[in-house]
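hi! just following up on the protien thing from before. the input was this:
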Amino acid sequence: MATIKFNTRWKEELVATSKEGSLVFEFTMGKFNVYFPTQDAWHTSAPEWAKQKWTTYLEECEKWCAENNIPITIVDDGIVYEDKNSL
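and the predicted 3d structure came back as:
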């Protein structure tokens, strides 16, 4: 099982950090919601090390959202990018 830690930060971002690196997702703060990219959007935007980990990150993000009572929405225009400064 993957160990992924989630942290929110200013500018409406949710940072998911694992031993491989950190990924950033859109997290609206006015009305909390995580916007998670579809598989196609993920494969277009995710760094090479994460391309095959869509399911893992989605499942872990869904758990985090459930624990924090925050909705998650899978969207075609979902943003994911690597944050090399979070490590």
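The mean pLDDT is 93.
Residues 54-67 form the longest helix (14 residues).
cheers
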